Amino acid sequence: MARRPKPKKKRPALGIPSEIILLTGQGVWPYTFLADDGLGGCGKVAMPSEAAVEEVQAALFTPLADLARTHHGIELGAAWSSLTHDSWVGRVRRVAGPPSSGAVTDDG
Description:
It is elongated and about 65 Å long. The chain is of the alpha+beta class and 108 residues long. The protein has one helix and six strands. The chain starts with 16 loop residues before the first strand and ends with a strand. A six-stranded mixed sheet has the order 3-2-1-5-4-6, with helices on one face. The relative contact order is 0.21. The model is unreliable at 104-108 (pLDDT under 50).
């Protein structure tokens, strides 16, 4: 008796990013992000340590927004605020209009 082949399980798509934590570093900027499904990830943005924080935030946020657009069909924006003198948090939210660069700051 022949067995039926089992369908391959697809890896679940990453959830929608909800928060990003960015730290300063030497030659790289480490980051961690959390998604609404409890998963997340981490990595490093390869930019010089003297790069403007807004440029690093945009370089980090753009690929995350592209993934959300591709996998979930939504546009995201981020409101960045300072945690300490060398770390920032980006609160990710859905946006109705065209996507922003992700470098919106909100120190309040």
